[in-house]
Design brief:
By secondary structure, the chain is α/β, with parallel strands linked by helices. It is built from twelve helices and eleven strands. The chain folds into two domains: about 270 residues, Rossmann fold (3-Layer(aba) Sandwich); about 100 residues, 2-Layer Sandwich (Dihydrodipicolinate Reductase, domain 2). Helices cover about 35% and strands about 20% of the residues. The strands form two sheets. A seven-stranded parallel β-sheet has the order 3-2-1-4-5-6-11, with helices on both faces. The protein is globular, with a radius of gyration of 21 Å. InterPro entries: Myo-inos-1-P_Synthase (IPR002587), Myo-inos-1-P_Synthase_GAPDH (IPR013021), NAD(P)-bd_dom_sf (IPR036291).
């Protein structure tokens, strides 16, 4: 990092990108770096590091991870790829207007936002891009390598928080898989926080299998599916027969627009359906409908209607309504996962990291119920502990 990149009020870091005492720092490279989730994550990390807000929603700031030797929030350095052009400080102000961020918060961390904005690189492929798959992967990997080197970072973790993409045509790597391949090539840990293909593309199976980095995914569990992973085991545990489980999602913003595409919505719903299939004896009737409501902006409403049978065939209904801010639900999970993957990389863990199902609709391994996933996460925290 050059001298003019340093935050104006942070005299504790030198131009070589080191913290006081030459403490190593960790890079967090966000795919979709100017999006709502990424912007909220960057603003949130800066606010927490400055003591402006409490770490609500961050499990990595609880006692469970107290001995896990995770990189401190103050030592995370952000960059990313994006095809959007709206500068990060302006995106943060837009989120204030949408009620996502508190008034005055972007200004309080404005210097940090300006620094990150200068580190964001063009994503792709854009319409009309003539670069080959190999050229795109090599370009993205070079951006990651430059970011890690230029900022004097010990390691970098790539987190995909871009909008959901539809399934790619056969034999073609979608953008999420291009970025995933670039992360592996650059030797960076990788998190797929979206339902997009990422490392799950058949053409990346061998590459992912031989990966010398940790990875995790996919599709962050922030709202409706989080609730389903609690309720479905409850019905099973009480031997109550679920006959039908239907739902509706109303959301706006970039995700709402992306999920208006039936193919993208199908990718999103697959994880929601998997939670029921893995937690109930039989998959109930019903499906989830996703509606784009631009007026909602970054807020979403998820409604579930559950029909179940009780003793002697008594027919009963449970309805739930989840209303929340998608970015504020996702951002602490993104910070958790980046810190955990960085620590896993430092310990030499490779391939899919066991114990992270708590965070995902479609995890690489582990139980499907939230209680079981929480136990596995605690066990992972123990494995990450510094034994020195």
């Amino acid at each position: 990092m050059t001298a003019h990149d340093a935050p104006q009020h942070d005299s504790g870091r030198d131009s070589g990108g080191r913290s006081p005492g030459d403490r190593p720092r960790t890079g967090v490279w966000l795919i979709g770096a100017r999006g709502s989730v990424a912007t909220t994550t960057i603003v949130g990390c800066a606010a927490l590091a400055a003591g402006l807000q409490p770490p609500t929603g961050l499990l990595t700031e609880t006692q469970v991870f107290a001995d896990s030797a995770l990189p401190p929030l103050a030592d995370l350095v952000f960059g990313g790829h994006d095809t959007a052009c709206t500068p990060l400080p302006k995106r943060a102000e837009e989120l204030v207007g949408a009620g996502v961020l508190a008034h005055g918060l972007p200004a309080a961390v404005g210097a940090e936002l300006a620094v990150v904005e200068r580190r964001i690189r063009p994503g792709g492929p854009e319409r009309g891009d003539t670069r080959t798959t190999e050229e795109l992967v090599e370009c993205f990997a070079a951006d990651l390598t430059d970011f890690t080197r230029d900022n004097g970072l010990e390691r970098t973790v790539v987190v995909n928080v871009a909008s959901t993409e539809p399934a790619a045509a056969e034999g073609q790597l979608p953008p999420s898989s291009l970025y995933a391949a670039a992360a592996l090539r650059a030797g960076c840990g990788y998190v797929n926080f979206t339902p997009s293909t990422g490392l799950h593309h058949p053409d990346l199976r061998d590459t992912a299998g031989a990966a010398q980095v940790p990875y995790a995914g996919r599709d962050g569990k922030t709202g409706q599916t989080l609730l389903r992973s609690v309720l479905a085991p409850m019905f099973r545990s009480r031997a109550l027969t679920v006959r039908a489980w239907s739902g509706t999602n109303l959301l706006g913003g970039g995700d709402g627009a992306a999920l208006a595409d039936p193919a993208a919505a199908a990718a999103k719903n697959a994880g929601k359906e998997r939670v029921l299939a893995e937690n109930l004896p039989e998959v109930p009737e019903g499906e989830v409908h996703i509606d784009d409501v631009p007026a909602l902006g970054d807020w979403k409403t998820a409604w579930d209607h559950i029909a179940f049978d009780g003793f002697l065939g008594s027919r009963m209904i449970l309805q739930t309504i989840w209303q929340g801010c998608d970015s504020a639900l996702a951002a602490p999970l993104v910070l958790d996962l980046a810190r955990i993957l960085a620590r896993a990389d430092a310990l030499g863990l490779r391939g899919p990291v066991d114990g992270l199902g708590f965070y995902f609709k479609d995890p690489d391994s582990g139980p499907a119920d939230l209680a079981g996933q929480e136990r596995e996460l605690a066990q992972l925290a123990e494995r990450l502990a510094d034994r020195a």
